[in-house]
Predict the 3D structure of the following.
Amino acid sequence: MPGGVGPISELQRLTVSLRGGFDQKDGCLVFHFTGQLDAYSEKQFMDYVGDVLKASKLPSVIDLSKIDFLDSSGLGALVQVSKRCKDAKRSFAVVGNSRVTQTVKLVRLEEFLNLVNDLPTALSRMTA
């Protein structure tokens, strides 16, 4: 797996509105997404994240700091991923930007999703 995050063009196109990829950093799987996590991209998001999680037991971080839009379907997908990780006793966190954070806090899921403001904070929680 590559050591760093490349430009958006290197991310896999999951839908017209969502691109994503992952790499391994500090002993964690770090998923990176850009675009919109909504009703149109939720299934592809779940399939992609699910397939990667099946292949690894590492703690996982979903970095949504470059997401432009998150709706209730996207929130539902994040809740499902969080439940899977908890059931598998895998550490899990979500990195959000101001839009994502506002949406997650509106429905009071910040603790359930282990929402943090930046990737270094998320990684430090995974390795602590």
Observations:
- The beta strands are 12-13, 18-25, 28-37, 60-70, 92-96, 115-116.
- The domain at 10-123 is CATH 3.30.750.24 (Transcription Regulator spoIIAA).
